[in-house]
Amino acid sequence: MLMQTHEARLTALREELKKRALDGFVIPISDEHMSEYVGEYAQRLGWLTGFGGSAGSAAVMADRAAIFVDGRYTVQVRDQVEERLFEYQSVPATSPVKWLAANARQGMKIGYDSWLHSRGWAKKAERMLADVGAELVPVDGNPLDAVWQDRPEPSAAVATIQTDDLAGRSSADKRGEVAQWLKDKKLDAAVISALDSVAWLLNMRGTDVSHTPVALSYVVAHEDGTADLFIAGEKVTPELRQHLGNAVTIRERDEFEGALKELSGKRVAVDPEYGVAAISLALEQGGATPVSERDPTILAKAVKNPVEVQGHRDAQAIDGVAVCKYLHWLGQEAPKGTIDELTAAAKLLEFRQQYGDLRDTSFDTISAAAGHAALPHYKVDDDTNIPIPPSSIYLCDSGGQYPAGTTDITRTIWVGPGEPTAEMKDRFTRVLKGHIAIAMATFPAGTNGGQLDSLARQFLWQAGTDYAHGTGHGVGSFLSVHEGPQRIAKTSGAQSGTMEALLPGMILSNEPGYYKAGEFGIRIENLVLTEVRDIAGADAGEWYGFENLTWVPIDRTLIEPALLSNEERDWLDAYHAEMRALLAPQMNGEVLAWLEEQTRPL
Predict the structure, then answer these.
(1) Could you tell me which of 215, 247, 244 has the C-alpha nearest to residue 232?
(2) How much is the pTM?
(3) Which of 220, 201, 383, 395 is nearest to 298 (CA)?
(4) Is 487 helix (H, G, I), strand (E, B) or coil?
(5) Burial call 234-265: b when 16+ CB within 10 Å, e when fewer
(6) Mind listing the pLDDT tens digit for each residue in 162-177?
(7) Domains along the sequence of the chain with CATH
(8) Mind listing the pLDDT tens digit for each residue in 297-342?
């Protein structure tokens, strides 16, 4: 009989821990590749607790348990997780390890799955628990999996080929670049464990993870340009085998751990962020030396080649038409008060499916009405779904996965009738001014995203307000919508990517926002491409700026024109004029008339 309640599941896990002589256990939302989005088979935290967010963790002991989330999920965790079973804990004020160290006693053994945590996390946790006389113990098989009776199997879908005409470079060329990197670093091999890195290196895609077109697999790349691919045999087609060629040896995915132990005497690069602790442990057990080095595909993947850049432009033009048709429909229907958040999200998906080779959404659509728009990472479901009220603000953050590129766009619109309040227009215009400041930025080579971030915030700061998320993240080419290493964000704290210098070819989001709790939220997001700028009379060295990639009107109803400078007005009018020229030939009738009205000069 299956365990239906979270209390029964927690009890079963505690019994399993007792059998294994463990006094505690840590459950993250993670998989063996440290992925942002994980397959159903790896949704252990959700099964145990009921929490449906994309980031969080839990710690379980014999007499108490806690769930850990950041500020994005403060409301959601209370709706979905029973406090009598799990104490609510806030990150980064605390963490599972801090909580365990505070509650553990001398001699206790705390278990962790070394396939779900980084080596750095494990070493830090070992030290903190040792300080209180407890021990961190890697488990042999996840105890939660032992009690999860109806746990889904990993996806068996076949892997697919990203052809060179879309990838812009052959896999052999990419593997050659990695081989040269290994030689330069005096290393013998590199473990490539991040799923999007494997996909990029081998020009391979898949459908194993929602929103990210990747196949569950690992690669060990060697300094002679050859590679071993570890992937379930049923996922390999004759076409993929031919595509990979003789230089790539295909082995079963479950042989990976044993193969690491075959690298005796070798110096092997393991990424400190994406390489789980089990990889380094297996290398050491086999007599190899794991060397902490950033995955050599990370930067190469982030700097898009000309073919990938053109693919992004093409995908954005298709996506722009779909989103425009959606906003036109929404403008007609939402003021009637008959559309809810789920219906709106479903309609947007329908338009995307009509106007392009859509393979998936690039993340769960944030379809947020009224006070829900004030939750930057809101996820609508049957329990949270509400009607979109007339005379209110509606925010939609969404994206698509197309073979040519990955899109991500946020638009905030006024749902009539009536007019937005002066406060709404003020805040929207300040967000728009910040968006334009990033879009118009010119900066010298070597500038990082942390140095640009305040350009987006300055106008909100002038009004004594701010937003709690980053301003921009990297975006992949038919890969992860949140791709590193570059970011635009505040540099305080340990924010990975803010110190990464921006390079031509990097694609980022530009998404400042404003959120008034319980009332409304505003975000304006386009994707931009870092490019070289020629500046007459400039000093020596290269200068960069951004090319806009996203083409959907910005709602003029919410703009307070008096707050815009002449330069900002000119930017907005030029943006809308270029959009009209690009999209109008693909439209007709009412939608074309809507586009012309929305893009007329301010």
Answers:
(1) 215
(2) 0.95
(3) 201
(4) strand
(5) ebbeeebeebbeeebebbebeebbebbeebee
(6) 999 999 999 999 999 9
(7) 6-147 (3.40.350.10), 160-301 (3.40.350.10), 303-553 (3.90.230.10)
(8) 999 999 999 999 999 999 999 999 999 999 999 999 999 999 999 9
